[in-house]
TrEMBL record:
Keyword Hydrolase attributed: yes
Organism: Streptomyces massasporeus
Domain of life: Bacteria
GO molecular function: hydrolase activity
SUPFAM superfamilies: beta-lactamase/transpeptidase-like (SSF56601)
UniProt cross-references to PANTHER family, sorted A to Z: BETA-LACTAMASE, BETA-LACTAMASE-TYPE TRANSPEPTIDASE FOLD CONTAINING PROTEIN
One Pfam family it belongs to: Beta-lactamase2
Name of the protein in question: Serine hydrolase
Keywords from the UniProt entry: Hydrolase
Domain Beta-lactamase class A catalytic: 21-260
UniProt keyword Hydrolase present: yes
Classification lineage: Bacteria, Bacillati, Actinomycetota, Actinomycetes, Kitasatosporales
Entry-linked InterPro entries: Beta-lactam/transpept-like (IPR012338), Beta-lactam_cat (IPR045155), Beta-lactam_class-A (IPR000871)
Length: 290
């Protein structure tokens, strides 16, 4: 494990990021800790907590996942994907909104679901599961609003200025949606063990996590046809995250959470994306070693 940790820290340094990681063998409990208890801003990773809450409420009969929701373009949260990028009205079920929220990280879909279940319900769910350092502070629309406000009159262009980025509340775990890598692997393990929800709803959550379209972070470390990766990314200025579960054909199941920050403000940093997969692979290989 010591050699694996050294290689993980070296990979983070080579990619120009500060990284926090926790990896957990879901069945044996073996783990690897690289800053696993450090508070981190979750960004869109927090959509996983919302997804579990949605299915918990459905299992309790508090909502029907086939319930239809009108999604007006005038009131949608902004974003580059899914409903957030669409121009016309739409009507979708709660479960299809959940699919968009997780597969393409649709902010508008996420806030439609938050409007239905509420932030307090999300926090009750994470508390019930023992995630003591995980907290939802605001909706995704509110999160984006803090970035706009903190960026000032220069707007999005000012986010290229490192001094502007340092004042963003969205990047301060004390003032935004937050967790730790260990809390996130605990949540994933609960989903994979059917401890977070009933088996029916646990299977639905796992299915949706397996439909994420982004291959450039966690999945990039496991380029094998017989290894399945299911996860959720999260991104903000200088922040690139992903949490997920890697499943091997021999039955091995590994929950991995990687959270990174970089000093560079560029929106495109392929090395910073790829190191998430590299670090995850190093961690899982260490857990699988004889």
């Amino acid at each position: 494990m010591t050699d694996a940790l050294a290689r993980i820290h070296a990979a983070f340094a080579d990619a120009g990021v500060t990284g926090r990681l926790h990896a957990l063998d879901i069945d044996s409990g073996a783990q690897l800790d690289a800053g696993a208890d450090q508070p981190v801003c979750t960004a869109s990773v927090h959509k996983l907590c919302l997804l579990v809450t949605l299915h918990e409420q459905a299992a309790a009969g508090l909502l029907d996942l086939t319930e239809q929701v009108e999604c007006s373009p005038q009131t949608r949260t902004t974003g580059p994907t899914g409903l957030a990028a669409m121009l016309d009205g739409a009507r979708l079920s709660l479960r299809d909104l959940a699919y968009l929220m997780m597969s393409v990280s649709d902010n508008a879909a996420a806030d439609q679901l938050l409007h239905r279940v509420g932030l307090d319900a999300v926090n009750r769910t994470t508390a019930r599961l023992g995630l003591a350092r995980t907290l939802a502070v605001h909706t995704f629309g509110e999160l984006l609003a803090t970035i706009k406000e903190d960026a000032g009159p220069g707007g999005a262009r000012s986010l290229a200025d490192p001094l502007v980025v340092t004042r963003l509340r969205a990047l301060d775990p004390a003032r935004t949606n937050r967790s730790t890598p260990r809390d996130m692997t605990r949540l994933l393990a609960a989903v994979w063990r059917d401890e977070a929800c009933t088996p029916e709803h646990g299977a639905a959550i796992r299915r949706i996590l397996g439909l994420q379209v982004w291959p450039h972070r966690l999945a990039s470390g496991f380029p094998f046809d017989d290894v399945h990766v299911a996860g959720k990314t999260g991104s903000l200025p200088t922040v690139r995250n992903e949490v997920g579960v890697v499943e091997y054909p021999d039955g091995g199941r590994y929950a991995v959470a990687v959270f990174t920050r970089t000093a560079r403000t560029s929106a495109l940093l392929p090395a910073a994306d790829a190191v998430i997969g590299t670090a995850a692979r190093l961690a899982v290989d260490a857990l699988r070693a004889p």
